[in-house]
Amino acid sequence: MSDYQMGAVESKFADIIWENEPISSTELSKRSEEILKWKKSTTYTVLKRLCDKGIFQNNKGTVTSLISKQEFYSLQSEKFVEETFEGSLPAFLAAFSKRKKLSADEVAQLRKMIDEYEEG
How many angstroms separate the CA atoms of 78 and 60, rounded? Predict the structure, then answer.
């Protein structure tokens, strides 16, 4: 499995790609300059790093994702729960809800997810 990790700035850059793909590397450079205040060289350096990680690809100047934004963040969540809570989702939820009270809507959404899981 590739190293699917990004820092905060890389995540903002990745969002530009996910929101505009397929995007030409030239257009990506322009948007990165506007949004992130990056020079062209910074854009290409970070793009290469994320391509090397297997998250994006640059094929003849057209940048596309190899994994979706949702899939990326799902992998990050799984990795966090695995490393921090020994893979226990209940332990994660218990720790999370001790510091942040769940709203009635959030509880209802969790119940719905469990019901849907049990139904198959």
Answer: 33
